[in-house]
Design goal:
By secondary structure, this protein is mostly beta strands. It contains one helix and ten strands; from the N terminus they run βββββββαβββ. It starts with 5 loop residues before the first strand and ends in a 5-residue tail after the last strand.
C-alpha cells in the first residue's frame, strides 16, 4: 500500500545495539484525529539490519494510539516477543535476531494506523514522542 507511512528514529538509534538484547524499545504515540477502518497491526514497528534483513513487530497487546493523551508502547528485544520477518511473517531465530541487533540500519514506527476509503474519505494525524532504548537491570 502506497498510503502506509512510517516515522524513522534518529541516527542515534542505529548501529550495534547488541547490548539491547532482552531490553526494550519504548515510545509514545497520540492520534488527535483518526477516521476510517483500523489497519492490520502487522509491521507496526520494524528494524532493518546491515545484513539486508527486515524484522517487524505487530505490537500484540497494544491498541492504537488515542486522542486523549500519549499511549505508551514497550517492545521487547527478543526474537520470541512478537518479531517476525517483515515480508513473509515467518519466525525469527535467535541468531538472526542477534545479527540484526549487531548492525541496525533503521528503526521505523508506522504512523498510518487507519485505512481511508477509495473516495479519500477519512483523516488521520499521528504524533510520536519519547523514543528510547531501555535495558533490563541485572537482578
Amino acid at each position: 500500500d502506497l498510503d502506509i507511512w512510517y516515522f524513522k528514529a534518529p541516527p542515534a538509534f542505529v548501529g550495534d545495539i547488541s547490548y539491547m538484547y532482552n531490553g526494550r524499545l519504548q515510545f509514545e504515540m497520540m492520534a488527535p484525529a483518526a477516521a476510517g477502518y483500523a489497519r492490520s497491526r502487522n509491521g507496526m514497528v520494524y528494524l532493518t539490519g546491515g545484513n539486508g534483513m527486515t524484522l517487524g513487530n505487530s505490537m500484540v497487546g497494544f491498541g492504537p494510539p488515542t486522542s486523549s493523551g500519549w499511549s505508551p508502547y514497550s517492545i521487547p528485544f527478543r526474537e520470541d516477543q512478537g518479531w517476525s520477518h517483515f515480508d513473509d511473517l515467518n519466525a525469527v531465530t535467535f541468531k538472526q535476531f542477534r545479527t540484526v541487533l549487531a548492525n541496525v540500519t533503521g528503526v521505523y514506527f508506522r504512523g498510518d494506523d487507519r485505512v481511508c476509503s477509495s473516495l479519500e474519505e477519512g483523516e488521520e494525524a499521528v504524533y510520536i514522542n519519547n523514543i528510547r532504548y531501555e535495558t533490563n537491570p541485572l537482578v
